[in-house]
Structures are given as structure tokens and as C-alpha cells.
Write a structure and sequence with these properties.
6-stranded antiparallel sheet, 317 residues, 5-stranded antiparallel sheet
């Protein structure tokens, strides 16, 4: 008897294993411009502003990024750890970047340690995720720069002057963290405005019984104008005067006539008309003292008493 023999056949299809997913990590950043606006150097005080560093990191499998933010000197350069903005005729305006609002910890880089240390931070990113953060740049124009001329001052940061480095392997600081250099660019700007300050010293002609001869006395006007700023100092005619040499000190209805002059010879009246009888000068970023020469000419002596007048000093620049 014949019996059928059944032989099972096994068919196999060999398929390749699926490819392992590629790990992709990256970070990018940008920096806002730092603008101090108008800066009055005559105040002697510091001027503060801020900027921002914005950072975004991405990861396909999740990672903790160790990030180092380096800020160098910019095109204005630096001296002994102080950055400069450059203005008219390459004049310098000193400023700096700091890591804290108190402006106590300078923000520098691993390549220019005189400027301070770079900023180190960590950023954890989930699987197939993206995380963004920001750090504030605390900027300050240093005080006591009265000698700086008016104008727009700038410094530009690009390339190696502003660099972010990152890695996902262990790191506790910026030491040795040089991987994945990424650059951005931004600028720093300040506008030093022309300005003048003025103070005046009273003129006291003293005590006199009879005004039968000229009586002379002096006072002073102290002018402090931004370096290079041209100015004119004018003196008005007082409360009751008819001109620079016909001012009047009053006591009730009685008056003593006097004049104010620019020179010791009392030949150049000091008035309030620019181009005619004002005193002119150029600011040096320091106080400049101008002597005011006063004279009471001989005249009929009025009743005894104290005679006074008020003269307004005007500085035009």
C-alpha cells in the first residue's frame, strides 16, 4: 500500500534589522544689542543698562547640556580688564559687562580672563525636546569720565568676540569646555550728550560812606562743560538795569549804579548778547573759573543801607 508522505517546507524571509536612531544634539543662541541711550558724563555717576543672551538646545534622545558663554572685548578693545566703546576721533568711553545685577562679578571669557570669567550653565532637554533659556547681561558705563567728548560711541561683537560652547558629557565649569563653538553678533552703543553746569560766586562791594570814587570788587562764574563743547556765558542786566554797565542795586526806591566786566581794566562789559558781550569758551570736562569784574563808579551817594541786585547767569552751548 502506498501512503503519501507529507514533508513540511519552511519558508523564511530574512529582513534586515531596523537602523538605530541617530542621536542629534545642538544648541543655538543670540544676543540682543546693548544700548545705554544718552549718557551725561558730567554727573560723574555710572550709567546702567542690560542685554540678553537667548539660548535654545535640542535633543532627539534627551540630554543635559553643559554650556559656556564667552564675551570678549569687542571692536572697541579693552585695557586692564575695562572694555571701551569708540567715538569721535577714536575717543574711548569705558564700560563693562557683569553677571549680576549688583555689577560685582565681571563677565569675560576663557581666552580673555582679564575681563572676567565666562558664564557656565546647564540645560536639561527631554527626549525629542527643545528647551530655551536666557541670561541677562548687566552692563555699566563707568562714572568719572567727564573728559569724554560728545558723540556716539560703539563697539561691535562678532565671531570669536562672542562664543557659545557646549557639550553633553560631564563638566562642572567652563574649564576645558571648548567643544561645538557657536558664534553670534551684537553691538554696544552710547550717546554722550553735550552738557554744561554753572555756579556763581556773589560780588560784595563792601561798606562805603561816600561814593566819590570808583569801587571795585570781583566774583566768579564756574563753568563745567563736556569736553570739546563750545559755550557762551551771559549775564543779564539784573532786576532793574538798563545795560551791562548800568545795572542797579536797589534799596526801596533808591539805587546804586554798577557794571560788570570781563576784564580787570573794566573795558569789556559783560552782558547777555552772544557775539557781542558774552564770554565764550570750550569745555574741558573740568571746572573752568571765569572772573567777573565789578565796578561801582563815582556817583551821588544815596541813603545809607544795604543795596542788592540779582543777576542771572546763562550758559548757551
Amino acid at each position: 500500500m502506498l501512503r503519501p508522505v507529507i514533508i513540511p517546507l519552511l519558508f523564511m524571509l530574512l529582513l534586515p534589522m531596523s537602523a538605530v536612531a541617530q542621536v542629534l544634539n545642538n544648541c543655538s543662541f543670540s544676543v540682543t544689542n546693548v544700548n545705554f541711550g544718552n549718557v551725561d558724563t558730567l554727573t560723574s555717576g555710572a550709567v546702567d543698562t542690560t542685554g540678553n543672551v537667548n539660548i535654545t538646545c535640542n535633543s532627539t534622545l534627551g540630554a543635559t547640556f553643559r554650556i559656556c558663554l564667552n564675551l570678549n572685548a569687542g571692536t572697541g578693545g579693552s585695557t586692564s580688564g575695562v572694555r571701551h566703546m569708540l567715538g569721535p576721533d577714536n575717543a574711548r568711553l569705558n564700560y563693562n559687562f557683569f553677571q549680576d545685577a549688583a555689577r560685582a562679578t565681571p563677565w569675560g571669557s576663557r581666552t580673555q580672563s582679564a575681563l572676567g570669567t565666562p558664564v557656565f550653565l546647564q540645560l536639561s532637554v527631554p527626549i525629542l525636546g527643545s528647551v530655551s533659556t536666557s541670561r541677562t547681561i548687566y552692563a555699566r558705563v563707568a562714572g568719572d569720565q567727564q573728559g569724554v567728548s560728545p558723540g556716539v560711541y560703539t563697539s561691535t561683537f562678532a565671531g570669536a568676540n562672542v562664543e557659545l560652547n557646549w557639550r553633553t558629557t560631564s563638566a562642572a565649569s567652563c574649564d576645558g569646555l571648548t567643544q561645538n563653538p557657536t558664534n553670534s553678533n551684537f553691538s554696544v552703543q552710547a550717546n554722550v550728550t553735550p552738557n554744561c553746569n554753572v555756579t556763581a560766586q556773589d560780588i560784595n562791594f563792601g561798606n562805603h560812606g561816600v561814593l566819590d570814587a570808583a569801587v571795585d570788587a570781583t566774583g566768579a562764574v564756574a563753568v563745567n562743560c563736556t569736553s570739546g563743547t563750545t559755550y557762551n556765558v551771559g549775564l543779564n542786566n539784573g532786576l532793574n538795569g538798563d545795560g551791562p554797565t548800568q545795572r542797579r542795586m536797589m534799596l526801596g526806591e533808591q539805587a546804586i549804579t554798577y557794571g560788570l566786566y570781563q576784564d580787570a581794566a573794566r573795558s569789556q562789559p559783560w552782558g547777555n548778547t552772544i557775539g557781542s558781550n558774552t564770554a565764550s569758551g570750550t569745555g574741558a570736562g573740568a571746572t573752568q573759573n571765569l572772573t567777573v569784574y565789578g565796578r561801582v563808579p563815582s556817583q551821588t551817594t544815596p541813603a545809607p543801607g544795604t543795596y542788592t541786585d540779582t543777576v542771572v547767569v546763562t550758559v548757551t552751548y
